[in-house]
Write a structure and sequence with these properties.
- By secondary structure, the chain is mainly alpha-helical.
- The chain folds into 2 domains: 62 residues, Arc Repressor Mutant, subunit A, CATH 1.10.10; 140 residues, Up-down Bundle (Four Helix Bundle (Hemerythrin (Met), subunit A)), CATH 1.20.120.530.
- It contains 8 helices and 5 strands, in the order αβααββαβααβαα.
- Strand 2 and strand 3 form a beta hairpin.
- Helix 4 crosses helix 6 and helix 5 runs antiparallel to helix 6.
- The longest helix is centred in the middle third of the chain and has 49 residues.
- The termini are far apart.
């Protein structure tokens, strides 16, 4: 049994983490009457948290059917990936225009941590189970990339879209093989190179290339 939690933000964070790391199977029923015992709170509190998670697209809710972890599909992932490209291109270009040296330094630091994790994974010979530390580092990198766009609605929307994308990825691909990380190390480097060069066209292309394999309906 999980440690009892008394704060709604803690419950939200824990359920979000489980939804993003394969803690619930796609389409799994999420029952407040069962989950509340894990968190040491009322079923109504869990219900409220699940409703919040449904607003960001990680949980599906239907009257009389209750809550379920969102189902996954190649088509849904492709749709989310396309929208993510549009948001990230606009946010990154705006950050390049606004951010300056401090933004570049923050991006370089976030990239250094992410690159170290990815390079270690790329050396492993066997399949790599989904690792939360990598997902957290990648989200931090992409948040930093957009951090100086000065468009709060874009940042809020991007966070929701990124979470939905990550949930789709985990549901469709339980393991990431080392070759996956060989590829994305190069893609993230291309994004940083474009930022350092202050090259808007290169930035748009690097972001597109980073998601291109996910925007198609045929699994890669």
């Amino acid at each position: 049994m999980r440690d009892s939690r008394i704060g709604t933000p803690d419950i939200y964070a824990d359920l979000q983490h489980r939804l993003l790391t394969g803690g619930f199977a796609p389409g799994a029923k999420l029952m407040p009457s069962s989950l509340h015992a894990e968190y040491g709170c009322s079923a109504n509190t869990v219900r409220d948290v699940l409703l919040q998670l449904s607003k960001v697209g990680l949980v599906e809710f239907e009257i009389q059917r209750g809550f379920r972890a969102r189902n996954v599909s190649v088509q849904k992932r492709a749709e989310i990936a396309r929208f993510r490209v549009l948001l990230e291109q606009e946010g990154a270009v705006a950050s390049m225009r606004n951010g300056g040296l401090e933004w570049e330094a923050a991006l370089a630091a976030a990239h250094h941590r992410l690159m170290h994790i990815e390079q270690q994974f790329a050396k492993v010979r066997d399949d790599i189970p989904f690792v939360g530390i990598w997902s957290d580092a990648e989200l931090s990198f992409h948040r930093t990339l957009l951090s100086e766009c000065r468009l709060p609605p874009l940042l809020e929307t991007f966070d929701s879209v990124y979470m939905q994308f990550r949930q789709q990825m985990v549901g469709l691909e339980k393991n990431c093989v080392p070759s996956y990380f060989h590829r994305i190390v190069q893609e993230h480097q291309a994004i940083v190179d474009a930022a350092t060069a202050n090259d808007e066209a290169a930035m748009r292309q690097a972001i597109y290339d980073h998601q291109a394999r996910h925007t198609e309906l045929v699994p890669q």
